[in-house]
What we know:
Elements lengths: L2 H14 L3 E2 L4 E5 L3 E9 L6 E10 L16 E4 L2 E3 L2 E3 L2 E2 L5 H30 L9 H7 L12 H19 L5 H18 L20
Antiparallel strand pairs: 1-2, 2-3, 3-4, 4-5, 4-8, 6-7
Helix pairs in contact: 1-2, 4-5
Amino acid sequence: xxxxxxxxxxxxxxxxxxxxxxxxxxxxxxxxxxxxxxxxxxxxxxxxxxxxxxxxxxxxxxxxxxxxxxxxxxxxxxxxxxxxxxxxxxxxxxxxxxxxxxxxxxxxxxxxxxxxxxxxxxxxxxxxxxxxxxxxxxxxxxxxxxxxxxxxxxxxxxxxxxxxxxxxxxxxxxxxxxxxxxxxxxxxxxxxxxxxxxxxxxxxxxxxxxxxxxxxx
Length: 217
């Protein structure tokens, strides 16, 4: 598949889901509360690899933005591409065909975009609760996010595993050798200690559990 066919298939699919083409491979869907942005990004490493990014912007936080870019959005993520039973964020046009690409885009739209069109940003965090830890402070304050009232969140071990995995990537990449594993041990101990002593009903930049203010969409 060449890049022109690739982009045309995506355009056809997004128009079916009520998105409007803007320019430079950017698409919008808007309602009274938010704007959803989808764009196509070419990889800087390969002429055959692309990414499909999406984001949501809350109008109450950005009154002056009618045509936002992905970087302007309050939440951002990427469509996954599933080929040969494996998922990644890379769309390699050498291995994709039109039918497969249509199926992948449709699945992403149905699983993620359609629910947040209907349920707003709350729905997004229901689908991807881990994303709450990556949002900007401005959005966090607007949503009124608080740590859960339990000192030991029900998903404590999942958080430990997730954070430990991220530390592993960082230290394995940057501290291969004698320094790596001692630092990992310290990181793991710190994470466990924090989760076991987390204060109740306290604002925090690392969100373990959360509740929303009323009337947030």
